[in-house]
Amino acid sequence: MNQTIRQLLDTADQLLTDTGEPATPAATASRCRGAAFALRVALESAVADRLTAHRAPRAIQEGTQRAAFLWLRDCAEAGTARRAKAVWSQLCLGCHYHQYEIGPTEDQVRAWRTEVAAIVALLAL
Fold it and tell me: What is the pTM of this model?
């Protein structure tokens, strides 16, 4: 795991840490969404590192994340690639703001944090 990924995971942890101050629903939602952003970037960085290590074509490395996750199936075990794509999809939904939806909950983001850390470890092997 590279230093950037470690810092992103730590940032997500800090955003999810209880500050001891009374939290408003808006502040909690913002912290959860911010943590989801950090987790998504950490996962994308781990996938990019894996693709680079397996000499994926430049078009894939510089293309869309969807293309990267498709190519990941050739660079990692099928189960790991599926898990990575699934949590990435959930993180994308959690990162986007919609007026008619409540953002991700702390429990959701903590579960994503656990899953991202596990996938990052598997991709680093």
Answer: 0.91
